[in-house]
Amino acid sequence: MSRVTRLPRALRPFRHRDYRLLIGSMALSLFASGMWIVAVVWQVVAMGGTPSELSVVATATSVGMLGAILVGGVAADRLSRRALLVVVECVRVVTALGAGCLALLGELQIWQLAAITFLVGAAEAFFFPAYTALLPTLLPRDELLAANGVEGALRPATQNALGPAVAGAVVGAFVPGAALAAAGGFYLVALVLVALIRTPPVPAPEVARSVLGDLREGFAYMFRTGWLFATLAFASLYVLVLMGPIEVLLPFAVRDQTGAGAGGYALVLGAFGVGGALGSLAVSSMQLPRRYLTWMILLWAVGITPIAVIGYTERLWLMAVAAFVAGATGGAAIVIWGTLLQRRVPPHLMGRVSSLDFFVSLALLPVSMAAAGPVGEAIGLGPTFVLAGVVPVFLGVAAILIWRLPADEIAHPLDTESETGAPVRTGAA
């Protein structure tokens, strides 16, 4: 038996030099982003900013990403994906170090910080389509599930836990500007790593099209591809029903029902992140489910039901358990989804389809956030969390049945024990 086959499934992607560079760069970027988020918040506070001003700064990131995400997908299908990642990291380095220097000099203003976060969000819109499209060119097809599991574990561990923790320590010991500058330093190391990745030359496009033409092709593929449209339609309504209660109402549920403060809220969020990391690693260590579409939708739809108890329980530990289960099932589903995109979407459309995924996820998020507060006040926290936990089940079952996903997954199997192969180096890597 070879050393390759003896390796655990989750570790096999690390055999490849370019993948190690890519995932190392991503880990540092996620860690720096976790620092950046916390540092920006405390920088606004240190400047005497109001909650409304903090909202403007935070919203600017989402606006920048939403405005650029579709163009980012077109760029990922037209240009060198590695070059796009390099440009994104350059923007992150310049903005983080620039904001840090201005803050340390006492020259940073709220409007400047809002403009900077808008630019960061716009750059982020180019990162994930390029990353999603680049990964299949670096790994064999049968190792994509494991690689997506690694990413799924890295995100909550670095961006949601380690990065914010280090930023909090730096802010406490020094000033927020120091944490902003430190984030820029980590982005710089991430830039060096991604610049070392070796990729094949970019082939010339077969047909010259405008950006709008490329966008139309991406949307046309989405509408005529049943499993893709079904999943994105489900995801958009899932975000609408779920994210507002979690982002807006969860802190009030923790405070009012358990009597806990910021520490209790952090515990629930931490449980969600740990669950996401473990769920991602668990799926990456297994073979892709034969019924991959059904499992993916049900992991999202049924896996979120435990949050229904958050609106009623007075026990903090029970809230944390519910969040852990929701995070674990959601993390597992995301790994399957990422692998599904990389295996079934044509390489020349990968960036645009990935950007449509992010666009759908972002489009209804502001609506969900805006509606959560009034709905919670009108019907109460308990019924609101019950709706958030139960409605996705009906949405998921509808998506599975209406678009006949079981028949689709049987007709298009993705994973077998015998499936191996070299990286598919097609498209603009």
Question: What do these coordinates show?
Answer:
The chain has 429 residues and is an all-alpha fold. The protein folds into 2 domains: 198 residues, MFS general substrate transporter like domains (Growth Hormone, Chain: A), CATH 1.20.1250; 205 residues, MFS general substrate transporter like domains (Growth Hormone, Chain: A, Up-down Bundle), CATH 1.20.1250. Helices cover 77% and strands 0% of the residues. The protein is built from 16 helices and no strands. It is globular, with a radius of gyration of 21 Å. It starts with a helix and ends in an 18-residue tail after the last helix. The C terminus is likely disordered.
Brief synopsis:
This protein has helices at 3-6, 17-46, 51-78, 81-104, 110-138, 144-173, 176-195, 211-224, 226-258, 262-284, 292-301, 316-344, 350-363, 365-379, 381-402, 405-411. It is an all-alpha fold and 429 residues long.
Which features would summarize this protein structure in a list?
429 residues; 16 helices; globular; Growth Hormone, Chain: A; mainly alpha
Task: Please write out the topology.
Blueprint: H1 3-6, H2 17-46, H3 51-78, H4 81-104, H5 110-138, H6 144-173, H7 176-195, H8 211-224, H9 226-258, H10 262-284, H11 292-301, H12 316-344, H13 350-363, H14 365-379, H15 381-402, H16 405-411
